[in-house]
Amino acid sequence: MIKPITAAWHFLQAQLRPLPVPTKSYAGCTVIVTGANGGLGFEAARHFARLGAARLILACRSTERGEAAKADIESSVTTSTAIEVWPLDLCSFDSVRAFCRRAESELERLDVLLENAAMLSITPAGMAEGYEMQVTTNVISTFLTVLMLLPLMKRTAAKFNVEPAVTVVGSEGHFWTRFVEKNQPRIFEAFRPGGALQERYMTTKLLDILIMRELAAQLDAASASAGASPIVVNAANPGLCKSSLFRNVFLIGQFFLAILTFVLGHTSEQGARALLAAAAGGRETHGKYVDCGKVDDPSPFVLSKEGKVVQKRVWDELMEILDGIEPGVSANVKQAPLSAMATSC
Ligand SMILES: NC(=O)c1ccc[n+]([C@@H]2O[C@H](COP(=O)([O-])OP(=O)(O)OC[C@H]3O[C@@H](n4cnc5c(N)ncnc54)[C@H](OP(=O)(O)O)[C@@H]3O)[C@@H](O)[C@H]2O)c1
């Protein structure tokens, strides 16, 4: 964990950075946004529609809320985008597998995978699929989705001569966790419904950044002959935003956070700009933390010697878990791309 003054300064710098309205065209592209029915995911989806994506998949656990989001987007922007609502519940591995299989069979290409859906709870949230619910949602299912969709994205790169992007939504909060579970022999099993819950969400976001970095490195290593991964992988921090994320926090009286969000928070639409900035960032953002639109260092822990060791441990454990859920899925990382990458979509 970094010193409070350094953390506060870092937060303020990122929070006050201007976030330009995205302008990159997504004409011809297919985009998936998870958690697209509300908050930043919804606003990101609206931007992708405005920017001309050919096909936009709103991945939502409630198709009713997804359909409402679709209707809202269609009535608020002029777009020819084909918007579809597909069910995806990250608390269910069956749902994740079904979603990814559908994408494999129905999508000809996948240019952007915006892994936005997440939950935050500082009261016991219970378990989902044998793991603490925030860990299942924010980390395990998030990367199960990424790994299952890698072959489609690699094919997209080769067939359409483009550079698809996986953007995982991280958080400034990853600076602020002590991550006590790293001292346990099995990190993922150390997360229980009780324990360091005040830090749990922040720890899941730290895990996301560690795993994103290792994934980027492994993709590069797997495509050594082509020089670099055909897919850009990065993590985006949207800064503190007004959304439903803190619904459970405010209920139990975290007034400081409420006031901070009221005074300094981006709107969800502004936060979504940071997500699109990362998704459009290209090669220079590969394996990087894109902090409110700008490549920046992740936390000192991530960059430390210990952080690198923990990154590999987390990765190895996660691959074991994911192969237990979907046998052989970890091999999707090493599977060679069909041909070298070229320009971005
Ligand atoms: N708001 C901030 O200040 C802030 C700061 C840094 C990072 N972030 C990150 O930004 C991303 C978006 O958050 P937000 O602020 O927009 O929060 P939000 O308004 O709570 O939206 C979260 C989205 O994730 C979906 N979701 C939650 N659990 C899910 C599950 N099990 N399966 C499928 N979808 C699920 C939600 O669906 P339901 O509507 O069905 O619940 C909702 O669509 C998250 O990754 C968050 O960690 C936010």
What does this structure look like?
It is a single chain. The protein has 13 helices and ten strands. Strand 9 (289-291) and strand 10 form a beta hairpin. With 345 residues, it is α/β, with parallel strands linked by helices. Bound molecules: NADP nicotinamide-adenine-dinucleotide phosphate.
Summed up, the helix count is: 13
Range of strand content: 5-15%
Average pLDDT over all residues: 93
In what order do the strands lie side by side in the largest sheet?
A: 3-2-1-4-7-8-9-10
**Helix/strand order:** HEHEHEHEEEHEHHEHHHEEHHH
Helix content: 40-55%
CATH architect. name: 3-Layer(aba) Sandwich
CATH superfamily: NAD(P)-binding Rossmann-like Domain
Structural class: alpha/beta
User: Got a strand count?
Assistant: 10
* C-alpha termini separation: 38 Å
Summarize the structure.
This is Short-chain dehydrogenase/reductase-like protein. The chain is of the alpha/beta class and 345 residues long. 48% of the residues lie in helices and 12% in strands.
